[in-house]
Write a structure and sequence with these properties.
This protein is an all-alpha fold. The chain has one domain (8-253). Helices cover 70% and strands 2% of the residues. It has helices at residues 8-22, 35-50, 63-85, 90-102, 120-135, 138-152, 165-203, 209-227, 232-253; strands at 108-110, 117-119. Strands 1-2 form a two-stranded antiparallel sheet. Helix 1 packs across helix 2 (35-50), helix 1 packs parallel to helix 3 and helix 3 (63-85) runs antiparallel to helix 9. The longest helix is centred in the C-terminal third of the chain and has 39 residues, at 165-203. The radius of gyration is 23 Å and the shape is elongated.
């Protein structure tokens, strides 16, 4: 296909889907990634896809019909990226569970990347997962996925499925299951600590278990976090598998 004013409409539709994905997808949507970089990468990918995707002119009758196609492509790209990105927040949920058990939940800090308030453990694990995402080149997989989406769903062939809420319901279920599985070691350790404190409260009621318990939970919690730091690859595997699953499912819903 050669670029001309006549087929510029197809170029624009490809650009809209890619741009919507860039501004919501994991890693690419981070606030510290300059907008010029996101826009430039979207235009670069669009220029490549324009000459590689199957040439099929979008079907519309009026300007309003073409506007609907543009909006549909933007929504599709944004939802594909968003449904993939929300899996990243599982680790924030697990980190909040960590800190709630060991007593750090009262300390919140602003994550400069995601622009949300998180706890110390959530921020720490979030950066580790993001680092592993870069090391394993998972962001390359997301680029290949959005490119392959044009083979599955032709340009201008977006079908907005009203049953997409089912995918969100399934994700919420996985969200809590995966989050609790990640936080399970800390839960188990603090449960043992609470049991010991309950026994000590009966044996030596003159001791102030409230003061002792706070320090003991922090001490045990930090030891457990240090011991399970080697399980970060397994945790990342949980998160990455959920990201891939959500990405595939969101593309299928637009067929």
């Amino acid at each position: 296909m050669t670029f001309s004013i006549d087929n510029f409409e197809m170029f624009l539709l490809i650009l809209v889907r890619i741009t919507g994905f860039m501004f919501t997808a994991p890693f690419f949507s981070l606030s510290n990634v300059p907008i010029r970089v996101k826009t430039g990468l979207a235009i670069f990918l669009t220029a490549i896809l324009f000459y590689t995707v199957p040439s099929s002119q979008p079907e519309y009758d009026t300007i309003m019909g073409y506007s609907i196609l543009v909006i549909s492509e933007a929504i599709a790209g944004a939802i594909m990226g968003f449904f993939t990105n929300i899996a990243y927040y599982i680790i924030a949920f697990s980190g909040q569970l960590f800190d709630m058990e060991i007593g750090f939940s009262m300390i919140n800090e602003l994550d400069p990347i995601t622009k949300i308030e998180t706890t110390i453990s959530a921020n720490f694990y979030g950066y580790l997962i993001l680092l592993m995402m870069i090391i394993t080149n998972l962001h390359h997989y997301f680029l290949r996925a959005i490119i392959d989406s044009f083979k599955i769903i032709g340009v201008g062939r977006i079908n907005l499925n009203p049953g997409m809420y089912q995918l969100m319901i399934q994700f919420i279920t996985d969200y809590f299951i995966i989050g609790f599985r990640i936080a399970l070691p800390v839960f188990a350790a603090i449960l043992v600590v609470n049991t010991i404190l309950a026994i000590l409260a009966k044996v030596a009621p003159q001791m102030n278990m409230f003061v002792i318990g706070i320090q003991m939970k922090i001490f045990v919690g930090l030891i457990v976090l240090a011991l399970i730091i080697g399980l970060i690859p397994s945790v990342a595997d949980f998160i990455f598998n959920e990201m891939v699953t959500m990405m595939k499912a969101s593309i299928e819903y637009f067929q």
